[in-house]
Predict the structure of MCTP2 protein.
Amino acid sequence: KSANPQWREQFDFHYFSDRKDMLDIEVWRKDNKKHEELLGTCQVDITALPTKQTNCLELPLEKHLGSLLMLIAVAPCTGVSISDLCVCPLGDPSERQQISQRYCIKNSFRDIKDIGFLQVKVLKAVDLLAADFAGKSDPFCVLELGNDSLQTHTVYKNLNPEWNKVFTFPIKDIHDVLEVTVFDEDGDKPPDFLGKVAIPLLSV
């Protein structure tokens, strides 16, 4: 019920600097659970923004009234990684020792914002639902922690996919919940939901 909404949400996107990336933004209005209406769109050329500073942008919505006020910072990515199981970032004993020292009791107040990080090994799924008429699925896995989101590659025509990927997230709030969702890739259509599990960080 507002024409001037304030969201104050922060989202982290991870991309490689050699790509020419456009950030696509859509603003939607929701009447109820079934009816949604597009209020406008806008784009930001990420490669044109100065790095290592916060850029304040007022973006007019294309072909619609109104504008969107955003703060966008392009900075080197720290603490987030995707790797294969065979080159797991915590596999090196010396690296594990450095991390143990970094988060020991005596260093716990050196950087209050540095709570730690979470490493997740996504190995495989078993006995997934068949999403197509041939009795198969094209599954991929999405991991979300707070507003951070990373995903595996798609394994085609398989109900027992093996991903064998290692994901590393920086932890911003110890009360966050890791959500792991499996989807079926469906071409240009939105992916089909195959299953989900939620793991509170405090339970790890």
About this structure: The CA atoms of residues 58 and 158 lie 45 Å apart.
